[in-house]
Amino acid sequence: MQKFLLSLVATSAIFYSVDAQTSYSFEASEGFVVGNIVGQKANINSFRDESVSVANTAVVTSERASTGVNSLQLLNDDEMGDSGVYIYNFPSYSKPSVSFDFYVPELGGSDTFLYAFTAGGALINIDFNYQGDVRIANFATQQYETAGSYVEGAWNNLRADIDFSAREIKYYLNGVLVKTGAATGTDTSLVEIDFAIDNFGSDTFIDNVQIKDANLAVQESGADKAFRIYPNPAVDVINFELNSKVISTEVYDAAGKSVKTINGDVKSVDVSGLPKGVYVVKVKTAAETFSKKVIKK
């Protein structure tokens, strides 16, 4: 299947204002309901090429989730061209960090894209292509550069830490630094991020979207030391200590598949029914998400 490189010419962002909400897991607790995303939040909307508020382009679904029980499903319509959602009206940071989980059911279908904009135009363009490559646009050369690969049929995470002062962007794939690139232009704040597919035969799922201050994230990494799981290895029950109210707890197997979900302020997980192996426990609070590996004996 032939794919065409999208134009990397900077296009202006559509909206800008300020909103305190910076985390979306598309849960009922955040005001979302299963169904069409259009109209659910004032600062989230769908698009199809140049049209906005397009029905059946993206839906909140309970089919799968990386955090909680819901995610956002970008719906393929086989008409080619970009479609998806855009998010705007979020706080302005000198070092913003954009992070999200994505799930591509199988290779050979649609490419998935992350676009990020400043008031002056495009800042980030990432293509998660149909072959499993993660390609990051170099605006100086007008070319995509392969930075790594994602896993089909599993949840993956992409994080971009932007330092406007240093004019630098660090890209992390599943927690690993895969590329350091330039933050082009002179603008000093993000105004919009887009999630899109090019409609070549398959849907993509998006979850756990976070837009926050990277300076704060560095401080929080120290707080992660206070997040303790015990016993580890475990046989029956995993307990954890955390000085925050828990929203949800998710357990993933080595393939990235969610095998257990607990909603609410619960600080223990029964793993007695799980096979022996290595798992990742992901605990979400209102401010951040903690993850630790656990061995089930």
Task: Walk me through the topology.
Blueprint: E1 23-24, E2 35-36, E3 44-48, E4 51-52, E5 58-61, E6 71-74, E7 83-88, E8 96-103, E9 112-118, E10 121-128, E11 133-138, E12 143-149, E13 155-163, E14 168-173, E15 176-182, E16 190-197, E17 204-213, H1 214-223, E18 228-230, E19 237-241, E20 246-252, E21 258-263, E22 268-270, E23 277-285, E24 289-296
Antiparallel strand pairs: 1-17, 2-5, 3-4, 3-7, 5-6, 6-17, 7-16, 8-13, 8-17, 9-10, 9-16, 10-11, 11-12, 13-14, 14-15, 18-19, 19-22, 20-21, 20-23, 23-24
CATH topology value of the largest domain: Jelly Rolls
Main sheet overview: 9 strands, antiparallel
Could you say how many structural domains there are in total? 2
CATH-derived architecture of the largest domain: Sandwich
Question: What structural class do helix, strand and pairing data support?
Answer: mainly beta
